[in-house]
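Case study 2.
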Amino acid sequence: MGEIHLEDMEFYAFHGHFKEEQIVGNRFLVNLTLYTNMERPGKSDNLKDALNYQEAYEIVKQEMEKKSQLLEHIARRILDALYEHFDGIDQATIKVSKMNPPMGGKMDRVSVTMRR
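Prediction:
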């Protein structure tokens, strides 16, 4: 088994519980680790044998464009879409971070991590 890491994917999106967040938007970072068998693509050097991480990125991007109130909802939606699209995922870990959240004080980010 091997790991594919898509790190610090940055999106500007309109997620949040507060109405203002869904109007003004915010920056989000997404980190994704996909665990998959890499034996075949490691030997063949052929993309058709691999879990295509460009397609994984596009799935994350599409899901980030859909409004949600909660980070947990975003993370679950992304995992659902990835597992629906790919047969070769043995396990996945996703971390979704909202940058500069409106918490009433200085904070870099708030994050949610989910594994399946």
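Residues 52 and 86 are 9 Å apart (CA to CA).
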